[in-house]
Every structure is written in structure tokens, then in C-alpha cells.
Amino acid sequence: MTVACVRTITPVLHIKPQLISLVSKPKTKTQQSCSVFVSSVVMSYDKELAAAKKAAALAARLCQKVQKTLLQSDVQSKNDRSPVTVADYGSQALVSFALQREFPYEPFSLVAEEDSKHLHKDGTQETIDRITRLVNETLASDGSYNVSTLSNEDVLRAIDGGKSEGGSQGRHWVLDPIDGTKGFVRGDQYAIALALLDEGKVVLGVLACPNLPLASIAGDYKHSSENEVGCLFFAQVGAGTYMQSLNGSSPVKVQVSAVENPEEASFFESYEAAHSMHDLSSTIAKKLGVKAPPVRIDSQVKYGALSRGDGAIYLRLPHKGYREKIWDHAAGSIVVTEAGGIVTDAAGNPLDFSKGKYLDMYVGIIVTNQKLMPVLMKAVRESLEEKASSL
Ligand SMILES: Nc1ncnc2c1ncn2[C@@H]1O[C@H](COP(=O)(O)OS(=O)(=O)O)[C@@H](OP(=O)(O)O)[C@H]1O
Ligand SMILES: [Mg+2]
Ligand SMILES: [Mg+2]
Ligand SMILES: [Mg+2]
């Protein structure tokens, strides 16, 4: 009975080899029910993780090329006045194309930040041509997808492959093709952030951080610019977090900081003051007795740096009314949790990625290690209450 049950699920589950022996040799005479057995199977997303790493590294290559020679005409403004560049579109097209190539026989669902709406306006022909050229050059330099040249229509179709709404059922890729576009335009930090949701839970995440030094950025990261840069973080549920160089060195396992004394903890926050209330994090840091000044870095690079212990706390406290999108946190959150950290909203609830494009949550995102979380949460709660009563 057990074997029959496994046959049924094999097409959708990848069972780790060590579990196959468990299947064929039941340990007791008592037959386990099918449902009990299925719930004890450890899902493996090795194939999906390998594809995600490859896609994100490819997109990083395109972004690096554009960042070196960014033209003013490469940057446009979206309806919410946030910037988008040819590299955001090119990165999204590449990841969408690569994932569809890797899994041609599986239903494809991608929730991604960009769409081609702005590229259908008058006067955008040159921009589309440039994006298509960048995508084709990157695919040709990689060589692994054996494609003839993609047309503008192919590229626009790949970008719009990211229009899924996500949700609590089935599998959905989640992509921020460039997280921290403002940082990217400034010549600073940014990340390509790709995650996979399965039944509403993040099961793997990849963060390509082309400008992050391989060595720790604890302290003043601007001064570590002589180090080799370009990190790829990746995590799979239950399997830990690893980092390797974007150039392809062997992965090393990473762990969040073990700091227990808040006075010794350093904290990360958004570079852009419009994205997070710097005054509120400064109040929280004072309450905790944190001595080091805040380290302000763009994008989910903060999650990556935190996962390897460069800092101990990440505080994200957006201004009233802002709604967080899942692509800004899905990859980063699993990279930190698999490295031993905790990610919650400011009320201590875990983040829920199953509600569509937005995180339906209480304001603020708080990230730290297990030891510091209770004292950090207390300081956050008190500071929020003080702020509310002063209004
Ligand atoms: N008003 C406001 N409040 C909060 N967050 C906002 C806001 N506006 C934008 N965003 C989102 O922030 C993403 C960049 O992440 P960070 O805030 O960590 O980066 S930064 O340090 O401020 O550059 C950024 O991601 P990208 O658009 O992918 O760059 C946005 O999704
Ligand atoms: Mg954006
Ligand atoms: Mg983003
Ligand atoms: Mg983005």
C-alpha cells in the first residue's frame, strides 16, 4: 500500500534517495496510512533550486553589464514615480525565459514586479530594441539555452510571463528582477531576488548580489570595496543557507550572527529614508543600547548580509499606508530563516506569502537571530506605542 501511494505522488514530489529505502522497507508491521506517510516525506526542490540559481546568475550578468554603462535613456519612471530600467526588464525576461525552458512540461506561474505596459507606449521602440539586444547577448554569452535570436515580441512575452497573482495553491515563482533599482541607478547595491512558493509557503530562495563583497561588510561596507564582489545566496526549506561567488566558487554554509548582547548588535535598514522610518529605528536602537551606527544598504542585499552574520538586526518600518509586495521579501526571508534567523512583522507574526502579490500584514518587518528577537520585539512595540501616543 505504501509503495502504491508513493507511485501516485512521484510525478509531483521529488523524494530524497534516502527516503526511498524507508518506503520499500516499512519499519513496523503496522501499516501507515497514506496521508501520514505523505506528510512525513521531505520534499526536495533541488532541480528547482539549480534552475533558480542559473536564472538569477544569468540575469545578474545582464544587470552588471548595464550598470557599468547606464545611460539616462535607460531609466524610466513608472506611474508610482519609482524608477525602472532596461536592466529590470531584461532581467525579468531572462529569468522568465530560462525557467520556462527548464520546466517545459510543468504549468508556469511567475509573480514578478515588472510588466510590458510602459513598453507599449509611443517612443519606446529604441528601448525595446535595447532590451532585446541585451537579452540575446546574455543568452549567447552563456550558450546553455541553444536558442536562435529572440524577437522583440518574444522578449515582451517573456516579461509578461510574470503576471501571475500567486496565492495559496500550487507553485508560483516570485521574482524581483532588480530589487533596489534606486541603488542600481546610483551605482550601488541591488539584488536579483527569486523564490518559489509551494502551497503558499516559500520553499526556496536565491539572491544574486552583484556588488556585495564576498568578505563581511560588518562596520563600514563602503571601505571594503577593494574586496572581490558578487555573491549568490541560496536556501531551500530544511536544507540551510549557502553563499558562493557569482563567478562560481564552491558554496559555503552561512549562519546568522550569534550576538546575544544588543549593545554589540549592528543593524541594517533601507538606504532610502522614504522606504523606512530612520528616526523610529534610531529610537529602537537607542532603547536596545546599540552602539554602532545603522548600516544603510539598498534592497534584499540586507537579508543576504544578515544571513552570513555581517549584522544582527534588520529593521524595515515603512511610512503609513505602504503595502509590502511579496517579491521584496520572499527570497530574502528564506535566506535568513534557513541561516537560523527569524523574520516577522512588527507584531511578531510570521510573513504570509499566500495572499497574492501583497503581504497582508501588520506594519513593519523585523529580522534578527533567535536570542535577540524577544528583546528587539519589546523595543519595537514600546517605540511604536510611544510614536502613536505622541501623534
Ligand atoms: N515608500 C516605500 N516604502 C517602502 N518600500 C518601498 C517604498 N517605495 C518602494 N519601496 C520598495 O522598496 C524596495 C527597495 O528596498 P529597500 O527599501 O530595502 O531599498 S533601499 O535601501 O531603500 O534602496 C523597492 O524595490 P524595487 O522597486 O524592486 O527597487 C520597492 O519595492
Ligand atoms: Mg521597483
Ligand atoms: Mg523590490
Ligand atoms: Mg524591482
Unreliable sequence segments: 1-39
Number of DSSP E strands:
14
- What string, H for helix and E for strand, traces the elements in order? HHHHEEHEHHEHEEEEEEHEHEHEEH
Bound molecules: 3'-phosphate-adenosine-5'-phosphate sulfate, magnesium ion
Largest sheet: 7 strands, mixed
How far from one another are the termini?
A: 64 Å
Q: Helices and strands: which structural class?
A: alpha+beta
Total DSSP helices: 12
Broad shape: globular
Strand order of the largest sheet: 3-4-5-6-7-8-9
Mean pLDDT: 89
Tell me the β content: 15-25%
Radius of gyration from CA coordinates: 22 Å
What proportion of the residues is helical, as a percent range?
A: 25-40%
Protein name: SAL1 phosphatase-like
Organism: Melia azedarach
Molecular structure report:
- It is a single chain.
- 36% of the residues lie in helices and 19% in strands.
- It has helices at residues 2-9, 17-24, 34-40, 46-68, 86-102, 125-142, 152-160, 181-186, 278-288, 301-307, 330-337, 373-390; strands spanning 75-77, 83-85, 110-112, 171-179, 191-198, 201-213, 229-236, 241-245, 252-254, 267-269, 295-296, 313-316, 341-345, 365-369.
- The strands form 3 sheets. The protein has a 7-stranded mixed sheet with strand order 3-4-5-6-7-8-9, with helices on both faces.
- The longest helix has 23 residues, at 46-68.
- Residues 1-39 have low confidence and may be disordered.
- The structure holds 3'-phosphate-adenosine-5'-phosphate sulfate (PPS) and magnesium ion (3 copies).
- The site of one magnesium ion has 3 residues, from β4.
